[in-house]
Amino acid sequence: MNLSRLLVVLPIFLLSVWLSGCGEPKTGKKVEPYQGPIEEINDVRLLYSEAAKLKVKLTTAKQYRYLNDNRKYPKPVNIIFYGPGGEEVTTLVSDSGRYDKAKDLYTVMGHVVVVNKQKQEKLLTSELNWNPVTKKVFTDKHVAVISQLSGEKLYGLGLDANQDFSQYSIRKPTGVFNMEGGPGI
């Protein structure tokens, strides 16, 4: 084979080898599409307002966003709920959280601690959900509510509350609490 013919055949051969490497793998395994986060954000601050008044502020060190617009918050989540006058009414701290776009539902998990500053009550649970559309907070998990004023401790399974925790109901309550009027009510 002469040199000029080799210079013509060699690039064609290399091109065909390169093209044969493209396409489906020959192993028979199907390649799964990427399911991981498409975006990572550090030092997140989300603000929710109504009628130009701040109602909720969420802060966390990291957020992952996925193709379906779901979000995960793998670091501690801090949330502040504000009252009508802009004052801090309730604070929430948790180990982590997530947002489900299809349900429009935020969920915080781990050691969840909610403090209502006005009522001086503390709520402890392992998981809590917040729906920004209905402005309701709820859980099916065990809860404990501790009054810092009276020392009352209420326990239960499940809770429903408005978003600032000024009103709540425990679904299956247990515990010791004081009742006005004494015995024989």
Layout of helices and strands, plus pairs?
Elements: H1 3-20, E1 39-50, E2 53-65, E3 71-73, E4 77-82, E5 88-94, E6 96-100, E7 105-116, E8 121-131, E9 136-147, E10 153-162, E11 168-176
Antiparallel strand pairs: 1-2, 2-3, 2-4, 3-6, 4-5, 5-7, 6-7, 7-8, 8-9, 9-10, 10-11
Question: What does this entry look like structurally?
Answer:
- This protein is mainly beta.
- It has one domain: lipopolysaccharide transport protein A fold, CATH 2.60.450.10.
- Helices cover 10% and strands 54% of the residues.
- The chain is built from 1 helix and 11 strands, in the order H-E-E-E-E-E-E-E-E-E-E-E.
- It has a 6-stranded antiparallel β-barrel.
- The protein is elongated and about 110 Å long.
- The model has no long low-confidence stretch (mean pLDDT 86).
With strands numbered from the N-terminus, the spatial order across the biggest sheet is 2-3-6-7-5-4
Percent of residues in helices comes to: under 10%
Helix/strand class: mainly beta
Tell me what portion of residues adopts beta-strand conformation.
over 45%
CATH architecture: Sandwich
Low-confidence stretches: none
Fourth-level CATH superfamily: Lipopolysaccharide (LPS) transport protein A like domain
Keywords:
single chain; 185 residues; lipopolysaccharide transport protein A fold; 11 strands
Summed up, what is this model?
With 185 residues, this protein is mainly β. It has one helix spanning 3-20; strands at residues 39-50, 53-65, 71-73, 77-82, 88-94, 96-100, 105-116, 121-131, 136-147, 153-162, 168-176.
